């Protein structure tokens, strides 16, 4: 076999290897994107909206959250703890009729406390706690975001929703619950949310509360029917 033929075969083999590497990288990237979308569900779409449609930037953000909080293991609640949290939530719901703002504030505090009891960062680090909850409770974490913002607006101190410890995880989606429709700070805090907005926020937050209590599904259905 001549030297020229050998060189040609080497070049061809190298080209085949290079193409295989490129295809493998692309496949891993596509698979990673699908995995993130499946894992984060609605939070994936909110991340894309935060980044003005830049999917790669959104996936870098979400991938970073998984790296930081994916290894977190939830601590189970004792029965007495669960009962205390349930009693406080029931009291907050009953209080809503006469004092919606106070009830929302209590719901916000309860979510922070129960999350801390389950092993998440404590409620004094809202952004970091929200980021960790996003990794493990992506389907319902937006309810926490809504009541936290509502409680902050009612208190006149804002929603605590700017990017910070969460590494770019901004608190987007107004009390109406739509991603990518956040208004400016001045407009957002110019007036307190109405009673129906507060009610919707508490209802959505209840789903995360139930998740964190880790109650049997039958019990959850009975609570919703009640």
Structure notes:
The protein is mainly α and 226 residues long. The chain has helices spanning 3-40, 42-50, 55-69, 79-95, 100-117, 126-136, 141-155, 185-188, 195-213, 217-225. The longest helix has 38 residues, at 3-40. The model is unreliable at 21-31, 158-168, 176-190 and 217-226 (pLDDT under 50).
Chain-wise SSE layout:
Layout: H1 3-40, H2 42-50, H3 55-69, H4 79-95, H5 100-117, H6 126-136, H7 141-155, H8 185-188, H9 195-213, H10 217-225
Helix pairs in contact: 1-2, 2-3, 3-6, 4-5, 5-7, 5-9, 7-9
Overall shape: it is elongated
Strand content is under 5%
Largest sheet: none
Mean pLDDT: 78
Total helical segments: 10
Q: Encode the helix/strand succession as letters.
A: HHHHHHHHHH
Identify low-pLDDT runs.
Answer: 21-31, 158-168, 176-190, 217-226
* Classification by helices and strands: mainly alpha
Query: What Rg do the Cα atoms give?
Result: 23 Å
Annotation, overall tally of beta strands? 0
Q: Helical percent range?
A: 55-70%
* Cα-to-Cα separation, first versus last residue: 84 Å
């Amino acid at each position: 076999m001549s030297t020229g033929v050998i060189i040609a075969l080497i070049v061809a083999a190298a080209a085949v290897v290079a193409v295989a590497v490129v295809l493998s990288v692309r496949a891993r990237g596509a698979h990673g994107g699908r995995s993130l979308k499946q894992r984060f569900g609605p939070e994936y779409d909110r991340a894309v909206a935060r980044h003005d449609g830049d999917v790669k930037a959104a996936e870098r953000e979400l991938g970073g959250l998984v790296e930081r909080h994916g290894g977190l293991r939830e601590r189970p609640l004792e029965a007495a703890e669960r009962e205390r949290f349930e009693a406080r939530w029931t009291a907050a719901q009953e209080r809503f009729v006469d004092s919606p703002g106070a009830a929302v504030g209590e719901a916000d505090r309860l979510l922070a406390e129960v999350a801390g009891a389950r092993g998440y960062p404590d409620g004094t680090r809202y952004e970091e706690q929200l980021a960790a909850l996003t990794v493990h409770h992506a389907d319902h974490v937006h309810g926490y975001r809504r009541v936290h913002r509502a409680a902050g607006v009612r208190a006149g101190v804002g929603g605590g929703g700017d990017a910070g410890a969460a590494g770019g995880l901004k608190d987007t989606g107004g009390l109406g619950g739509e991603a990518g429709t956040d208004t400016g700070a001045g407009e957002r805090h110019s007036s307190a949310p109405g009673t129906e907005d507060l009610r919707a926020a508490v209802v959505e937050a209840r789903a995360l509360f139930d998740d964190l209590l880790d109650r049997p599904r039958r019990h959850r259905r009975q609570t919703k029917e009640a």
